[in-house]
């Protein structure tokens, strides 16, 4: 039977068992890595979020050669959190894997049970949400918005809150009403920026962003994906501005807004 040290050093051993053994070794209070030993849930959480976004970025760029590594980095976060939990006597990696395996089994009765698979994607989504609602009820999470994680990125959390509220009828029936609300919130932001303190300006901007997320939901658009694409487009066009200026031996600081705006429009016509 392989010892922990054998697992750590043997690249041909079971990859999951080897990764778990390496993390245990790194967290060993006597012989582990000082940095790894010092970490806790709070200090590792930002890295977990960052790694999830790097996975999304690789997918967005269709960088399939990078995706394997990014998924590994994300898996490491799960292993790290699980080891911290094991060190505290809370749970272990096998509990995490076992829980999610059972959850996926329970949430797919049309695959693993006796329910029919002959239903639309929309019906499957409704069934999935019904099962999740029952799970929340079993945890005494009876409020409509219970269980929407506070630590989610704000735009994603706004979307989830709005979806939950819409399920119980708290929603505009028409897209036009959402657009009207955007106009209203934009006007309130304009007025706040003219005369109100910074905290009120922030509040009004938050209201506008919240309604924009609601519009994305009504348009069936993922706002995070839409904004990532907008960021990528801005990057492409601005880099083109820099390249065009560099042809004359200049940089943006040597130009002005009018010229750079014209170059932006040129980049736009080039399909960037």
From TrEMBL:
GO molecular function, one term: ATP diphosphatase activity
The organism's place on the tree of life at top rank: Bacteria
Catalytic activities: ATP + H2O = AMP + diphosphate + H(+)
One Gene Ontology term from the biological process aspect of the record: dTTP catabolic process
Enzyme class, first EC level, given as a word: hydrolase
Domain spans labelled NTP pyrophosphohydrolase MazG-like: 39-112, 178-237
Family: Belongs to the nucleoside triphosphate pyrophosphohydrolase family.
Protein name: Nucleoside triphosphate pyrophosphohydrolase
Annotated organism of origin: Roseovarius nubinhibens (strain ATCC BAA-591 / DSM 15170 / ISM)
């Amino acid at each position: 039977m392989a010892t922990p040290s054998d697992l750590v050093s043997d690249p041909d051993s079971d990859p999951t068992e080897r990764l778990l053994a390496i993390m245990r070794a790194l967290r060993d209070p006597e012989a582990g890595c000082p940095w790894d030993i010092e970490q806790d849930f709070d200090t590792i959480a930002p890295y977990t979020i960052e790694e999830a976004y790097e996975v999304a970025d690789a997918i967005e760029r269709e960088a399939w050669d990078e995706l394997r590594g990014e998924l590994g980095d994300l898996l490491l976060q799960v292993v790290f959190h699980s080891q911290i939990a094991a060190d505290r006597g809370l749970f272990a990696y096998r509990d995490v894997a076992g829980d999610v395996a059972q959850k996926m089994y329970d949430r797919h009765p049309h695959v693993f049970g006796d329910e029919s698979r002959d239903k639309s994607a929309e019906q499957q989504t409704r069934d999935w949400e019904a099962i999740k609602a029952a799970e929340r009820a079993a945890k005494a999470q009876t409020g409509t918005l219970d269980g929407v994680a506070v630590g989610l990125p704000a735009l994603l959390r706004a979307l989830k809150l709005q979806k939950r509220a819409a399920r119980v009828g708290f929603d505009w029936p028409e897209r036009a009403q959402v657009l009207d609300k955007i106009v209203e919130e934009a006007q309130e932001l304009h007025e706040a920026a003219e005369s109100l303190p910074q905290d009120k300006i922030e509040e009004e901007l938050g209201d506008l962003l919240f309604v924009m997320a609601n519009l994305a939901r009504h348009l069936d658009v993922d706002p995070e994906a839409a904004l990532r694409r907008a960021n990528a487009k801005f990057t492409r066009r601005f880099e083109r501005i820099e390249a065009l200026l560099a042809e004359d031996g200049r940089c943006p600081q040597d130009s002005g807004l009018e010229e750079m705006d014209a170059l932006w429009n040129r980049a736009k016509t080039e399909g960037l």
